[in-house]
Amino acid sequence: MSRKIYLKILLGVVAFIALVKISSIVFVEPWIGKKIQASLNEKNQDFTVEIDKVHLLMLSRGIELERITLRPKQESGGSLTGEIASLKFKGIKLVKAFFKKEVEIRAVIISNSSIRGKIPFSQKAVPSIVSPLTIRIASIFFDKINLAIQDSSTAQVYSLKESDLKVYDLQVKKNDTLTAVILQQFDFDAEEFFSISSDSMYMVKASGIVYSAALNTLTLANLSVQPNYTNYDFTSRYKFQTDRIEVFLSDIHAQNISAADYLKFKNIASSFIEIGKMEVHVFRDKRKEFKHVNKPAFQEMIYSYPATIRIDSVGVVNGNVTYTEHAEDANEPGSIHFDEIHAKVYKITNDTIYKTENAFLELKGEALLMGKGKMTTALKAQLFDTRNKFSLSGTLAGMEAKALNPMLEKNAYVYATSGTIDAMDFSITANNARATGNMHMRYHGLDLAIKSKKTDDTTAIKERFISFIANRKVMDANPLPGEEVREGVIEYERDPEKFLFNYCFKAILSGIKSSIEKSPKEKRSS
Q1: Per DSSP, what are the bridge partners of residue 426?
Q2: Which letter does DSSP use for residue 447 in this model?
């Protein structure tokens, strides 16, 4: 066969392919686009879908939809709009689709999607979406998702910026409900997640989010929980005393964590969670009315979680915690802070296997009290103990008593004019009802002044007289010259309306009081 015949055959094939392609572009692709668009809009009462262009992908046996627009129908009352730059289906098995009524696709790629607007986040049950066919997709890739959705009836907002999602091996059987539960394995990353609570009081923000299903790891560059109002503006919006909590976390890493397990069963499990930096600020205005409600022990709060919690350990590399309180009769708030916190918590779990096997939740940490005195603490609680028994021990290195004045003078109306705490150690055993223990606090040169609740003055005659009486009741050193170190007695009945921090603080305070106050016998002999 001559070269001219080969050339003619080649030109004929090229012409045929060109004809098919032109016919596809001019007739087939627009027709397919209209059919898909009509099918999507036929049963949709809330939105209108528009497709700008459709391309058949011959080599990869697929189809691409370009510039998909989602617009609300006027009668629906919604304002949600959306755009998708490109939606590709590759490797479609047409034989199964036509004859077996099964959809099997090698890859789906959704590029540059954006959805924004207001919709009602109804509390009523939403009708389930059921898959009409068996669907298998080897991979789905959402490239650059941007969401900004607000509840039309509250202040609740959800926002997602520059996020990517890749889902692997998606399999949905016919009549399966289409929910997040069907996600078996996926990777996710996002530049930022942002949310505002329905009452507008709090904002949650996370950035630098990366989750890997293959590695079972989750990392966040930053995570914050921020009130949307300043201290007094925040508390003024509540009838009763309420803690205003502000949290900033950074460099968060979680190992052996399964996002799919959480989506399916709400289970929280991880072998280790590390927080590189932590800042916590808590404010309470005690001038407001107190709501009398019993609070569960910290162990009960873990047990009451409706799914399984199994976290082997959580570590804080560096943290600072500040608690500020405006006492009922105080002119200004007082505060106490713990700086340079290094802590680890072990065995945070509600796994019922530990009802028959002995295991303990433990906390070990160290910090600088008021940025001055080095503190160490160790808490140990047996899991599923009927009385929620726990032990707490700790030490405090030397510091000046004046360092405690920011809390003492505003909340206890006492001012330490002099004195040094040389060292302190304590040991407490506590349960649901009572805390007991002992304390050894070594100090010297302690002198106190009583402040006026109205004027904050310590020099008025009344306050000077009360200060004199107070110092007569308080020993200025431990041990006193020629005597042994006095042991403080810790005794405190738990207030069921207060949480763990208050319980432990009041128990330690009872030991401090018994260490510095003169006993009745000592008062008579002085």
Answers
A1: 394, 439
A2: E
Q: How far, in Å, CA of 476 to CA of 179, rounded?
A: 68
Residue 232 DSSP SS3: helix
Whole-angstrom distance, CA of residue 210 vs CA of residue 351: 28
> pLDDT digits over 180-194, tens only?
667 788 999 999 999
Q: Average the pLDDT over 158-164 and give the result.
A: 95
CA 202-206-210 angle, to 5 degrees, is 155
Give pLDDT tens digits for 136-158. 889 999 999 999 999 888 999 99
Pairing of strands 202-212, 185-196: antiparallel
C-alpha distances in Å from residue 11, one per residue of 8, 20, 22, 24, 68: 5, 14, 16, 20, 37
Yes or no: say if 183 and 165 are a contact pair by the CB < 8 Å rule: no
Residue that the structure tokens 């200025």 belong to: 476
CA–CA separation, 275 and 270 (whole Å): 14
Q: How many CB atoms lie within 10 A of CB 490?
A: 25
3-state secondary structure of 13: helix
Question: Cβ(502)–Cβ(495) under 8 Å?
Answer: yes
What does the alpha-carbon distance between residue 73 and residue 65 come to, in Å, rounded to a whole number?
22
Q: Where are the alpha helices (DSSP H) in 24-90?
A: 29-42
Amino acid making up residue 58 = M
Q: What local confidence, expressed as pLDDT, does residue 97 receive?
A: 60
Q: Is there a contact between 211 and 238 (Cβ–Cβ < 8 Å)?
A: no
pTM of the model: 0.86
* Length reported for the chain: 526
- Note the pLDDT of residue 41: 67
Tell me which residue has tokens 């799914």.
Answer: 307
**Residue 251 to residue 178: CA distance in whole angstroms:** 34
Return left, alpha or beta for 331; rule: phi > 0 is left, psi -120 to 50 is alpha, else beta. alpha
Read off the tokens for 499: 């949480």
Distances (CA, A) of 272 to 94, 249, 268: 46, 16, 12
Q: What is the DSSP letter of 97?
A: I
What pLDDT shows up at residue 125? 46
The answer to whether the beta carbons of residues 190 and 163 sit under 8 Å apart is: yes
